[in-house]
Amino acid sequence: MNVPYITIFSTMTVDGRIASYVGYSKLSCKYDLLRLHRLRAESDAVMVGAGTVIADNPSLRLKYFNGKDPDRIIVDGLLRSSVNSRVYTENPQKTVVMTTGLAPEAAIGALMARGVRVVVAGTGPQIDMKVLAGRLWEMGYRKVMVEGGGRLNWSLISSGMVDEVRITVSPYIFGAGRSIFDGEGFRTTLDGPALKLKSSQICECGNEIHAIYSVNH
Ligand SMILES: NC(=O)c1ccc[n+]([C@@H]2O[C@H](COP(=O)([O-])OP(=O)(O)OC[C@H]3O[C@@H](n4cnc5c(N)ncnc54)[C@H](OP(=O)(O)O)[C@@H]3O)[C@@H](O)[C@H]2O)c1
């Protein structure tokens, strides 16, 4: 089955958190934002989970790098995100929502009325990420970047659908909160995917590390 090349980009604390226990998640320096937006510009689409839409209300457009806005893919099994979220009100025709048969019909109708493409990929509540990736390929997406959050990252990595992980380690500690991969967990190193370090650099700010890993399937 053909699937897009999927890259996760996350900025995390030294203890692997992408948000604190109160949901605070501003961890990127200006150079990290530039890296993030460069990857957006190089991608056909940027994917986030419902939790990120609800917590941050991002637009997922290009701001710090010139280029074409990528499409957005929102994974929202129950359609919990508000129809008034920026991803649905700003250029809604560039947004695809992947949901399930458990989503309220009224919510599907409201999104479609705005021009958002809604794909029901399974009976729910969980979407099989292999099915999701296959559908994205069929829709023409070849390079997809994922900007979290932790539960979507876990869904993808635990189903073997991630090709690359790009992390920035930001010099903070949260001690609790959302992890970069947040799910049932792997029992041992043998159960999870093996990563290979492709490159690492000290950020231009002098206080962050950016590393790129490929994921062996
Ligand atoms: N520092 C960073 O780089 C960074 C980046 C992004 C986000 N964040 C932070 O991360 C937090 C959000 O993370 P999160 O883990 O709570 O939320 P999330 O991963 O953004 O979204 C989780 C939701 O996505 C849907 N989902 C995920 N996998 C699914 C599957 N296989 N099938 C169906 N639906 C699926 C589910 O929605 P339903 O429950 O509706 O089914 C699930 O509740 C926020 O605080 C945000 O600020 C930080």
Q: Care to describe what's here?
A:
The structure is a single chain. The chain is built from 6 helices and 11 strands. The strands form 2 sheets. The protein has a 9-stranded mixed sheet with strand order 6-5-4-3-7-1-8-11-10. A two-stranded antiparallel ribbon has the order 2-9. Strand 3, helix 2 and strand 4 form a beta-alpha-beta unit.
For the sheet with most strands, the description reads: 9 strands, mixed
- As for the CATH topology, it is Dihydrofolate Reductase, subunit A
* CATH secondary-structure class: Alpha Beta
Arithmetic mean of pLDDT: 97
- Gyration radius from CA atoms, angstroms: 17 Å
String of helices and strands: EEHEHEHEHEHEHEEEE
The strands making up the biggest β-sheet line up spatially as 6-5-4-3-7-1-8-11-10
Our estimate of the beta-strand percent is: 25-35%
Whole-number total of structural domains: 1
Within CATH, the superfamily carries the name Dihydrofolate Reductase, subunit A
Straight-line N-to-C gap: 14 Å
How does CATH name the architecture? 3-Layer(aba) Sandwich
Strand runs, count: 11
What ranges have pLDDT less than 50 throughout 5 or more consecutive residues? none
Give the helix tally.
6
Name the ligand types.
NADP nicotinamide-adenine-dinucleotide phosphate
Helix/strand/pairing category:
alpha/beta
Taken from the alpha-carbon principal axes, the silhouette is globular
Into which percent range does the helicity of residues fall? 10-25%
